[in-house]
Amino acid sequence: MSYSSVEIIDGGQALSLDGTRFHALWLRDNALDPETRSPGNGQRLITLTDIPGSTIVSEAVLSDNGLEVTFLPEDKTVSFPHDWLKQHAYDKPVGKPAGWLPTDIETWDAGLNMSVPTADFGEAKQGGEVLGGWLSAVRRYGFAKMRGGPVESGALLEVADLFGYIRETNYGKWFEVRTEVNPTNLAYTGLGLQAHTDNPYRDPVPTLQILYCLENSAEGGDSQVVDAFKAAEKLRAVNPDGFRLLSSYCARFEYAGAEGTHLLTRKPMIELAPDGELIGIRFNNRSAAAITDVPYEEMSAYYAAYRQFAEIIDDPSMAVSFKLSPGECFIVDNTRVLHARKGYSGEGSRWLQGCYADKDSLYSTLSVIESQQKVAAQ
Ligand code: FE2
C-alpha cells in the first residue's frame, strides 16, 4: 500500500501523507541514509543535537519508491519507503483506557483448558515453525506447556536454551521444588499455594519461569495457572476505583528467608505504563510486606480492592489446571500469569525443578523466526 498525496503543513514543521501527519524533526531524526544510520548494524550514527532545532521540510515528493524529503537548513535530502512510514506512523487517536492491551495479547480464563498451547520438545528443538508457534503462544497467552522432554535433572535448562538464557538468582541456576524438612521457602513443602507470581521482591522481577516435572506420583499436586491480566480486566469492570488504587499505589514485597539474603521492592500490584498499557502484575501472599504507601484515607478501599482482586483470582472459573507428567513442563510470563499448586500428600513423590529466564530474549528469538518465515513466504 502506497501513500497517494503529500502536503507540507505548519510552515514546513510537518507534512501530511493522505492525512497522516509526521513532524519534520521526527522524520529527520529517523532518516535511513548511511550518514544517519549505520548500514552495517542499523544503529544511529548521530545524536539529536547534531540536528538543527529549526529543521523544516522544504520539499516533499512522492513516488512509487516512497517519500523523498528535503530538510532545511541542512539542505539534506533523504527517502523513506512507503512501508516504513506505514509501520512507524504515530498520528493515531489518543486517549486509550487505563489497562489497555496490545493486539498480540489475548486474555483467557478456564475456557483455555480446552486448548492449552503445547509443543513437543523434540520438534521445538528443530526451531522454525514449531518453536515459533510455541513462543508466539507465550506472547499471546503468557503461558504454554511442553511435553516430551528428557527426564533428567537439569533438563529445564535445555528448554530455556530454545529461546534464550536463564536468570541465576540466590536460589541458584535452578531450584528444586519438592518437600524439604526445614524449607527455606514454603514452595518446598507439600502445602497448597495460592496463585501467585514469583519473586515480586526482586527488581527487576524475573519475567519468565519454567517449571519442569521429573516425578509426580504423589496424590494431588496439580498445577494451575491464572491470567492475572484477565483478573485485572474483571476488577476494572466491577470496581474501576479499585483498579485505580491497585495500579496507582505501591505495595511492598520482601524476602529474607535465607541467611545472607534480604530482598525488598516497592511496586504496584497492577503496573501500568505511563500511557495506561497494562504491563505487569505482582501478586504473592507469602512475600507481601506491610503496605505503607497508601494514604490512610484510601487504605480501606485499597484493601477492599486487594480482596476483590484475590477473589477474582481464586475463582475456579479463572484457572487452567493440569497435572504434569515426567518430562513435561510449563512456562509462564511471570509478569502476567499466576501459578498455583494444589496441596499434595507425602505418599508417592513429586519432584519439579524451576528456573527463571527473561522475555527480552524470548521475544528476540520469536522476532527472528517471524522475519525468517516472512522471507520464506515471499
Ligand atoms: Fe511459585
Q: Can you walk me through this structure?
A:
The chain is of the alpha+beta class and 378 residues long. The protein has two domains: 6-88, NE0471 N-terminal domain-like; 110-369, Clavaminate synthase-like (Double-stranded beta-helix). Helices cover 25% and strands 27% of the residues. The chain has nine helices and 21 strands. Strands 7, 8, 9, 10, 12, 19 and 21 form a seven-stranded mixed beta sheet that branches. It binds fe (ii) ion. Fe (ii) ion is lined by residues 187, 196, 198, 339. Fe (ii) ion (FE2) binds at residues 187, 196, 198, 339.
* CATH classification, class level of the largest domain: Alpha Beta
Helix content: 25-40%
Query: What is the average per-residue confidence, as pLDDT, rounded to a whole number?
Result: 95
* Fourth CATH level, the homologous superfamily of the largest domain: Clavaminate synthase-like
The DSSP helix count reads 9
Q: Mind describing the biggest β-sheet? A: 7 strands, mixed
Distance between the termini: 16 Å
* Uncertain segments: none
Count of distinct strands = 21
Gyration radius, to the nearest Å? 25 Å
Proportion of beta-strand residues: 25-35%
Known CATH architecture of the largest domain: 4-Layer Sandwich
Count structural domains: 2
- The string of secondary-structure elements, in order, is EEEHEEEHEHHEHEEEEEHHEEEEHEEEEH
According to CATH, the fold-level topology of the largest domain is: Double-stranded beta-helix
